[in-house]
Write a structure and sequence with these properties.
Blueprint: H1 3-28, H2 30-73, H3 79-92, E1 96-103, E2 108-112, E3 117-126, E4 129-138, E5 147-148, H4 159-167, E6 173-176, E7 191-197, E8 207-213, H5 215-218, E9 229-234, H6 248-259, E10 278-287, E11 290-299, H7 301-391, H8 395-419, E12 427-428, H9 429-443, E13 451-456, E14 461-462, H10 464-485, E15 492-502, E16 505-512, H11 519-524, H12 526-538, E17 542-547, E18 551-558
Parallel strand pairs: 13-15
Antiparallel strand pairs: 1-2, 1-8, 2-3, 3-4, 4-5, 6-7, 7-8, 9-11, 10-11, 12-14, 15-16, 16-18, 17-18
């Protein structure tokens, strides 16, 4: 048996052992994965239910705040004004079964809607005298005048009043609902929302405003119902607030409420021992002032089916992998030699690339140093010319010295802006030409302060040598614009653009909206135009000058790659 055949057999054996071990482990952990998935489903359903309850609660907190703000700003509020505000609010919100308002003198206003009837009750206290009035009507019937009624207990002795007073804050407080006096059998739902209302400006009696909320209507759209999931909300006494359905899930909830002391509710549990396909979990939800217990029960039958299908698929996969391992082992052996050669070639390529990158980096550093030294030397020459110009007695000769100095300054400026570019092999013409235009404007300040410029290069990049020549051309043309195009200080605009005219051919356009050509301007700028034309020839290009509502200079040129 040859050596290569031995390696093939050994590889197949090792691969088969690994595959079998992995699949056995996966199949053995299927129950753990199922538990994790179901717990994740429970947590997600419970979190969604908590979020919905908070949103519903916040909407009623907002309504209570609005009513409290109205009472605080309009004290004293008339009885009719309260009735006019509360009646439509309760008609729009079925969950609000009563609205109460009491002050620190024991006066109380109640709008009560226990069933199909409406009740409007007023209690006034003066010293030891108590006066109570009440009115009742059906549906949309006419509201009768309140008539004397039995005196109500002092609201200051109730829990909802003391809870709001004890909060000492602006946040409404949740508590268990209390029955309205005279309707002891009706608790008006399950929850109470109360808020302390201080007088505007701190002067006047304080009030407590409260909503009595029916849990079934309050949480009608919160607890989910369906064949696969069911939710329930309970108060602090573990009494249901939301309604129970009449199906299997409802029976599971009733069983849970009976056996809750025997179940660890902090973990997922099976509410019905005879039905292992149901799984539940209960969590705590804290509202300001009270605590609710919220729970969900889900059906995990779909998860079991999915786990069974996964197991079947894994067994099928085991057979396919055994066949595939044989084929891959053969391919692996054949490719091993080719991969080794490819890896060696890759290492050599990486070494060459690193060496080339090092060389390019060193060259770029040297190029930047060269441009920096050229700029420094040009600045030295400019300084010498400036000193020499100050010693020339003839005004015309001195002016020529200054012009020569300015051109040397322009050359230094070009090299300075160039070595500050990030990539000298592909210079961004927009940033480069824009920097030069700004520097030239500063050079001719303050007469250039009213002259603006725009640069549009369409993202074109070019080499460093071409950039230097374009920069010198632009310096000459901008100098002519600032010196001759706007002689009266009225301001103007200079537009600089570079366009691609074809393979390797580009066009630089410098156009102003100044006064255009004049014989004096042409004479004064003759040398500058000659310099521009000479630089254009170095760029293997041409120059064309026209004047129509300003001066326009077009220079067609080629980059080093296009020559």
């Amino acid at each position: 048996m040859r050596v290569s055949e031995r390696w093939i057999i050994l590889g197949i054996a090792v691969l088969m052992v690994l595959v079998l071990a992995i699949l056995a482990r996966v199949l053995g952990n299927s129950r753990e994965r199922e538990d994790n998935l179901t717990e994740l489903m429970l947590d997600r359903a419970l979190n969604n239910q908590h979020q919905q309850i908070r949103l519903v609660a916040e909407s009623y907190v907002k309504d209570l705040r609005q009513e409290a703000t109205y009472i605080r700003l309009h004290q004293p509020v008339s009885d009719s004004a309260l009735l006019d505000r509360w009646l439509p609010l309760m008609q729009d919100h079925n969950a609000i079964r009563a609205i109460r308002l009491a002050d620190d003198q024991g006066n109380e206003w109640i709008l009560h809607h226990p069933d199909s009837t409406w009740q409007w009750m007023l209690t006034k206290r003066q010293d030891t005298a108590v006066y109570s009035l009440a009115a009742a009507w059906f549906g949309d019937g006419e509201i009768p005048e309140p008539a004397p009624a039995a005196a109500h207990p002092d609201p200051r002795e109730t829990d909802w009043y003391s809870t709001a007073i004890g909060s000492h804050g602006d946040e409404p407080v949740w508590s268990q609902a209390e029955p309205i006096a005279g309707n002891g059998s009706d608790s008006l739902g399950s929850l109470q929302l109360s808020k302390l209302v201080l007088a505007h400006g701190g002067n006047g009696p304080l009030h407590v405003l409260s909503f009595s909320l029916a849990g079934t209507e309050l949480l009608a759209n919160v607890a989910e119902r369906g064949g696969r999931i069911s939710g329930l909300v309970l108060n602090a006494r573990w009494q249901p607030i939301s309604s129970l359905d009449s199906g299997t899930m409802g029976a599971a909830w009733r069983q849970l409420l009976q056996d809750r002391k025997r179940i660890d509710l902090e973990k997922p549990f099976r509410p019905v021992a005879s039905d292992p396909k149901l799984l539940g979990k209960v969590g705590t939800l804290h509202l300001h002032g009270t605590t609710l217990q919220t729970g969900v029960i889900i059906s995990i039958q779909a998860v079991d089916q999915l786990n069974h299908q996964r197991s079947v698929g894994l067994w099928a996969l085991m057979g396919l992998l055994m066949l595939l391992s044989l084929l891959l082992s053969l391919v692996f052996i054949q490719r091993r030699g080719a991969e080794r050669r490819e890896a060696q070639q890759t290492r050599r390529s990486k070494l060459q690339a690193r060496h080339l990158e090092k060389v390019m980096t060193e060259r770029e550093v040297l190029d930047r140093e060269v441009h920096h030294r050229v700029k420094n030397n040009l600045q030295v020459v400019s300084s010498l010319l400036n000193i020499q110009a100050q010693r020339v007695p003839d005004e015309g000769a001195r002016r020529e010295f200054v012009r020569g100095k300015r051109r040397i300054d322009s050359m230094a400026l070009v090299h300075h802006k160039l070595y500050r570019q990030n990539d000298l092999s592909a210079v961004d013409l927009h940033d480069f030409l824009d920097d030069i235009a700004k520097a030239m404007a500063a050079m001719f300040a303050p007469q250039s302060s009213k002259v603006g410029h725009t640069v549009d290069t369409q993202g074109i990049r070019c080499d460093a040598d071409t950039s230097i020549q374009l920069g010198m051309v632009l310096c000459e043309l901008l100098a002519n614009c600032h010196q001759h195009a706007f002689p009266f200080g009225t301001g103007g605009q200079i537009h600089i653009s570079v366009r691609n005219q074809g393979p390797g051919v580009y066009q630089l356009v410098v156009q102003d909206n100044g006064q255009g050509f004049s014989s004096d301007a042409v004479k004064d700028s003759q040398l500058g135009l000659e310099v521009v034309e000479a630089l254009s020839e170095q760029l293997d290009g041409t120059m064309r000058v026209s004047s129509d509502g300003g001066t326009r200079v077009e220079i067609n040129f080629r980059t080093n790659e296009g020559r």
